[in-house]
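Lay summary

Proteins are chains of building blocks that fold into shapes. Our project writes down both the chain and a compact code for its shape. Here are two examples, one after the other.
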Amino acid sequence: MKKLKSLCVYCGSSSGRIDDYADAARALAQAMAPRGIRLVYGGAHVGIMGTVADEVLRLGGEAIGVIPESLMKKELAHQGLTELHVTPSMHARKTLMAELADGFVALPGGIGTFEEIFEVWTWAQLGFHKKPCGLLNVAGYYDGLTAFLDHSAHERFVRQEQRDMLVVESDPAVLLDRFAAYSAPELPKWMKRGET
């Protein structure tokens, strides 16, 4: 694994129900700062997205936003970022974010957040990249999802090695330490009948 210089953070454009989610976004930024890790994210100034970017910038770090043109027109873009890339589509946005990042983490978020982290995790298990993927499990937000993923592995729709590729931690510093030590497994894609 090459040094983790840039972290792609997927998260909500909403702040969520409780303050713990914004607190965790700030805590992640605070864990990134001493490691010199720059933020790559969706480029908005609202919700958890805006919170993590604001904290990275407050701490003197770099925040790279990637936003599709359609959302720029809705005036959601953060205007104080180190760099802001405007893409013609959501697909182009996700591709550029993946290219700019050395790892991927999901803070609490909604459907878009789920889709983004699952897509890059899928790319990892297919061998398209060897970058770490993870969930920052704030206030038990991802407990139900991780239980379901364990069930999927138990039912042999997901290999245990593939399930283990998704790092889940509640402490941002521990998550970043695990990312720094991450080495992608060499996995065959398909599971044969009777394999566990």
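And here is the second example, written the same way.
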Amino acid sequence: MSDTTVLSNRQSKLSPIYIIGMLFFIFGFITWLNSVLIPYLKLACELTTVEAYLVTFAFYISYFVLAIPSAWILKLTGFKKGMSVGLGIMAVGALVFIPAALTRYYGLFLLGLFIQGSGLALLQTASNPYITILGPPESAAKRISIMGVCNKIAGALAPIILGAIALKNADGLKERLEAMAPAAKLTELNELASRVIMPYIIIVIVLLILAVVIYYSSLPEIDTDQEDETTAVNNTGKTSIMQFPHLLLGVLTLFFYVGAEVIAGDTIINYGSTQGIPLNIAKFFTTCTLICMLIGYFVGIACIPKYLNQEKAMKISAVLGLVLSAVAILTTGYVSVSAVALLGLANSLVWPAIWPMALAGLGRFTKIGSSLLIMGIAGGAVVPLAYGALAQALNPSHGYLVLIPAYLVILYYAIGGHKVGRPKTSTRQQL
């Protein structure tokens, strides 16, 4: 084989990874804007703590609603066109923020978040199995970790950028609003709501441009219905995804994991403010959580599978999550906030490990299996609401009690849950 042919083959393998990496960057940027939107909309729309966490509910419940329809759409469009459609749907959701800001109507903000989440559900249903299958299964967690780096770099930037605009002088504004007459207060709140209009116009334009780029890209189509010989033999006679208990347990694990990840990233700004930390400082806390996740991803890229297999990485993550949750619950102030931020490190290797473990041996059931895993992302809708309810009923630090059962489920899956009923797979999955 000539050097030119080798280089061409190498580029053809790298190009899809670059394109999917770009998509994961977009996932991260849009997703982690929620950490700023929670305290921002709580102030602008005069919300209670539980009402403010409807931001995460509206965004993540769309994954539950749209996951199965996403599989149907991908069967019709294929992966590449489906990704392009998903970006277009996200652009529509971002566009809804403009009338929402103009009217300061919280329901419209929630609708925009739901539509954005719907587009992301389609994108995630396509991109996660794509990057899992695009190479040897034993190094899938490493590839997903690389995607996680793209995701979390964007996630670290998003709250800083939006926070600088939406939460500018927010502490002083909170104090002034308490003393204002109703008419003056209304004017101030309308001005505050209008701050997100320009950022979301820019987001709409970027999403539409990227949709066109993906549509005309060189991203190859993959056939997940093709099965290698071992997988085909193992799946003989299987007619339903419900016959794969290791996948169903993976969905449950993903549900609790995403809930834990969202709590660590999206509650920390608001939690910091309840600990007497000014919003001008607290607005950087989500970035701290995501930097911790980035560190974990780099560890995963360096160590998996050479020094650490996916199962062991997940066990370590779960135990670390339990320890840090206990610290967050039992302490206050900067110590407690630091423990929440460090949860990013505990969470970093769970998502990359769950996907290859849960999708192992599914063969022709991969698309629907991926859809069920995407439904598990709805944990980001439910678990933070449970945190909000506990934080309001007890106190903000005790709200983190919801993390204990979440990390126990993750630990169970890492120890033995991923083996329950799992069929034998060949050493390399066919594309």
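What can we say about the second shape? DSSP finds 20 helices and no strands in the chain.
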